[in-house]
Amino acid sequence: MKKIEAIIRASKFDQVKEALSIQNINFFTFYEVKGYGHQKGESRSYRGAIYDVGYIARIKLEIIVSDAFIEKALSTIALAAKTGEKGDGLILVSDISEILNIRTGLTNGDAINS
Ligand SMILES: Nc1ncnc2c1ncn2[C@@H]1O[C@H](COP(=O)(O)OP(=O)(O)O)[C@@H](O)[C@H]1O
Ligand SMILES: [Mg+2]
Question: Where are the beta strands (DSSP E) in the chain?
Answer without folding.
Answer: 2-9, 29-35, 43-46, 49-52, 56-65, 90-95
